[in-house]
Design a protein that fits this description.
The protein has about 600 residues and is an alpha/beta fold. The protein contains 14 helices and 22 strands. Strands 3-2-1-7-20 form a 5-stranded parallel β-sheet, covered by helices on one side. The longest helix has 21 residues. The chain is globular, with a radius of gyration of 26 Å.
């Protein structure tokens, strides 16, 4: 009798996967699984009625991406017909909707489903997930072998921590949960905050409101605007990029090469850091001219410590408009008619817009229970994450855009891709070996955090500023972004460190060997002599050689390391290029 196919080496068992979140991360994971796996099921839950994650939730006036559009796509799925350099949230969301449609991923996604709990069953080696269907009100129970939390970190609005917020009788809005049906025409509007959202909101509403006041507790570094001629792509330019993919590829690659050349702007006291500070400080003073509080709008901390804001000169100019008042203080309490600031002044308003960012504590909104531990409680004490994807002591579960993800030196989408590939490598091993569970050892997380802390001493995110990486509290915690460049992260994530994980098996761990027949012999179209070659094209044995081969060493002209001419002292045309919030130079 011939051997059974199921007994071949590395036979694939059926694997059940649940992903929480249908933003950029969950969508990418669904694509990667569909592309590379067959014997699996996938359910993607999302609390919102539509996909897109943060790009669905953020719809405040002026909301747009701060990464050049042609680089805010998956690396393998360009979009040639972006309307502008910094596209609005609706256009970005349409990119992800179109991606789902083209790759037929919609059947995996269950919108209007809020996950309420996840519990690990050690005996069965599976997760039970409960989600509430908002359309029916029913609780849906489902089980899986692998649970992935792709909820991101920009999805929990942080309201001001001051007294009396509920006492305000006017309209309260938050930039991360904005009601775009509210008419601001001829209203007195108070904006709290001076970060990315506030910088976009103020210029968008200033022409229509009666009076706009903005409370600025601490300033942010802002960048020159892209000129009007280059901010919107003309029909001819769009047609050219659509019909000439080689031009689109050249544009995307040049943008990426530029941003990846300037990571040392995020390293304290480097040439690029000092050049950037001098350039932006001088430009801010030039824009504000004789503005009486110009010094209060120049940060004391390093460039990049707090998110750097592109197209910020429009914001600076708006501050000087006759119907705009700037309050250099912080909100201390609310009243029925407005807000009291720490300087004792009361500011009346019809509408208050809290552009106060997000709760970036990374604590899940729902209980996640395993072995008597609740992830919510554990991370309330101390974040025990690992390289953006790992959670100590919780079996068969991963995060995407979790703590220690690179979100500064480049668009987050390339990091998302790396994380999806990394997680898929674990799914592949789980599927082809008799594994019961895979969990990250707590001692590994402790060592990992020690190394992160050591690296962070030299980086600007430990400077004296509030940012999302420290949950907006100076010295509150070890910054949770990746302690290095995007390229550094890609190399770190390329090959899993299996010895960092505790792997438990069902029965004999070598059962994957099967009955001696290969998978190749079960493929009737495979070449049974595939290893006979004319030259050695196998991967290099050394890590450095492998990395250099992937990076196409020798393919580009030699460059000056850790320098960027656009930041040099001779540069004076600020409107033609700028460092973006993600570390890019625009206008190249």
């Amino acid at each position: 009798m011939d051997p059974a196919k199921e007994d071949a080496i590395y036979n694939e068992r059926f694997v059940r996967i649940i992903c929480i979140g249908a933003g950029a991360s969950g969508i990418c994971l669904a694509y990667k699984l569909k592309r590379s796996f067959v014997n699996f099921s996938l359910v993607v839950y999302d609390k919102n009625p539509e996909v897109g994650g943060t790009w669905y939730e953020n719809r405040y006036p002026g909301c747009a991406c701060d990464v050049p559009s042609h680089n805010y796509t998956y690396s393998f799925d360009p979009k040639p017909d972006w309307s502008s350099v910094y596209p609005g949230s609706k256009e970005i969301r349409s990119y992800f909707e179109d991606f789902i449609s083209r790759h037929q991923l919609g059947h995996f996604i269950h919108t209007s489903h809020l996950v309420e709990s996840a519990n690990w069953d050690e005996g069965k080696g599976e997760w039970e997930v409960k989600a509430r269907n908002f359309e029916t009100g029913q609780i849906v129970k489902s089980t899986c072998d692998i649970l992935i939390h792709a909820t991101g970190y920009l999805n929990k609005p942080a309201w001001p921590s001051v007294t009396g917020l509920d006492d305000f009788k006017g309209i309260k809005l938050h930039s991360a949960n904005y009601d775009d049906t509210v008419d601001l025409k001829d209203r007195n509007v108070l904006i709290i905050g001076s970060g990315s959202s506030a910088v976009q909101i103020l210029p968008a509403i200033q022409p229509i409101v009666r009076k706009a006041k903005i409370i600025i507790r601490t300033p942010s570094w802002v960048l020159p605007d892209i000129s009007t001629e280059t901010s919107v792509f003309t029909p001819d330019k769009i047609e050219e990029l659509v019909n000439k993919p080689e031009l689109l590829m050249a544009l995307r690659q040049e943008n990426e090469r530029t941003m990846n050349s300037i990571f040392t702007v995020y390293v304290k006291n480097t040439v690029l850091q000092n050049q950037a500070r001098g350039l932006l400080e001088s430009a801010t003073k030039d824009i504000l001219g004789q503005y009486d509080m110009v010094d209060k709008l120049i940060p004391e901390f390093s460039v990049g410590c707090k998110r750097v804001i592109p197209s910020g000169f429009r914001f600076l100019r708006t501050l000087k408009e006759s119907n705009v008042d700037v309050i250099h203080s912080s909100a201390s309490s609310f009243t029925k008619s407005g807000c009291v600031t720490e300087d004792g002044q009361h500011h009346q308003a019809d509408v208050v817009i809290c552009a106060t960012g997000f709760d970036t504590s990374y604590v899940p909104r729902y209980p996640v229970i395993a072995s008597g531990l609740n992830w919510q409680t554990e991370w309330s004490r101390s974040i025990m994450g690992y390289m953006g994807v790992g959670v100590a002591s919780f079996p068969n579960t991963f995060t995407m855009l979790g703590p220690y993800t690179p979100v500064t030196n480049g668009p987050a989408l390339i990091a998302i891709e790396a994380q999806a590939d990394y997680i898929c490598s674990f799914i592949d091993r789980y599927q082809t070996e008799p594994i019961h569970s895979i969990s990250l050892r707590p001692s590994i997380c402790e060592e990992f955090k020690e190394q992160v802390a050591k690296a962070m001493e030299t980086l600007v995110w430990t400077d004296n500023c509030r940012n999302s990486h420290n949950n907006h509290q100076i010295g509150g915690r070890l910054p949770t972004n990746w302690p290095g460049s995007t390229l550094h992260y890609l190399e770190a994530m390329r090959e899993p460190r299996w010895d960092d994980w505790d792997i438990q098996y069902r029965g004999n761990r070598f059962a994957w060997m099967g009955n001696g027949i290969s998978q190749t012999e079960w493929d009737p179209t495979a070449d049974l002599a595939y290893y006979i070659r004319e030259r050695d094209d196998s991967p290099h044995s050394g890590r450095k050689a492998r990395n250099l081969a992937i990076a196409k060493t020798g393919s580009q002209p030699a460059r000056e390391l850790h320098r960027q001419a656009k930041l040099g002292p001779a540069r004076n045309e600020l409107s033609t290029g700028s460092i973006t919030a993600s570390g890019k130079i625009n206008g190249v």
